[in-house]
Amino acid sequence: REAILRQAQKMEAVGQLTGGLAHDFNNLLTVIVGGIEGIRRAPQDSERIARYAGLVLEAAQRGAKLTQQLLAFSRRQALQPKVIDVNALLTDFQPLMARAAGEAVELCVAPAFEPACVRLDPSQFESAILNLVVNARDAMPNGGSVTIEVQRVDLRAGNVAKADPGPYVVVSVTDTGEGMPADVLERVFEPFFTTKEVGKGTGLGLSQVYGFVRQSGGQVRLDSVVARGTRVRLYLPAETEARPEAERPAAAQAEGGH
Ligand code: ADP
C-alpha cells in the first residue's frame, strides 16, 4: 500500500513538473506569437521589426534553456543556484516582461538603491516573475499598471521567518487589477487551481512561484483587495557576499547547490 502511495506521489510530482514546464512554454509562446504579430502589422517598419525580432529571439532562447533544464532533470542533475543581483537581472528582463504584459498594461520596474544579491536559479526566477506578470495582465483586461519593485529589508525583529530573520531581498509585483475574493485567495497556491477559462489557465503559475521560492529558502506573501489590485511579495534570503560568483573561491562555489 505504501509503495502504491509512493508511486502516486511520484506521478503527481512528474505531472506537476511537466505541467509547470508546459505553463512556462505557454508564456514564452505568448511572447513569440505577440512578437510575430507585431512584425506582420508593420511590414515596412524595419526598426520595429528589429525590435520585435529581438524579443522573439530572446523568448526562443529561453525556451531552449528550459528544454535543457528538463534534460538536466531527467538526468537527475540538481539545478545549480548562482549568486545574482536581482536589480540587474530584472532590468535585463524588462523588455520580455513588457511584451508579456501587453500594450494595455503599463510596466514599471523599480530596482533597489543598493545591490540586491541572492542565491538562486536565474531561469527559475525569470519563470516565476513571468508567471506573476502574466497573472497581473490577466487581472487587468481593461489595462492598468504593474509595478515590480526590489527592496532590501532587514527583519531581525520581524515575523516573516523566525528561524531566519534576514536580511532579505524583497521582490514585489503589484497590479491594479480585479483582485481576489477570500475563497480564491485561500486556494491560489494549489496546483491546478484556476479561475481562468479552459485553455487560458493551468493553475500552475503560482504553485511554480511558491515551490521555487521555498526551495530558495524564501517566503511568498500575497495581499489582494477586490477591485483594487494584488501584491505578491517574494522574500528571498539576501546573499551577504556581494561578490559575483565568478570571483568567489572555487571551494565556496562547489558547496552551493542543494
Ligand atoms: P493560472 O494563472 O493558470 O490560473 P495561477 O496559479 O498562476 O494559475 O493562478 C491561480 C489563480 O489565482 C488564477 O486563476 C486567478 O484566479 C488568481 N490570481 C493569480 N494572480 C492573480 C492576480 N494578480 N490578480 C487576480 N487574481 C489572480
TrEMBL record:
Signal peptide: none annotated. Residues 20-240 form the Histidine kinase domain. It comes from the Bacteria. Coiled coil: none annotated. This is histidine kinase. The lineage of its organism: Bacteria, Pseudomonadati, Pseudomonadota, Alphaproteobacteria, Hyphomicrobiales. The chain holds residues 523 to 780 of 910 of the full protein.
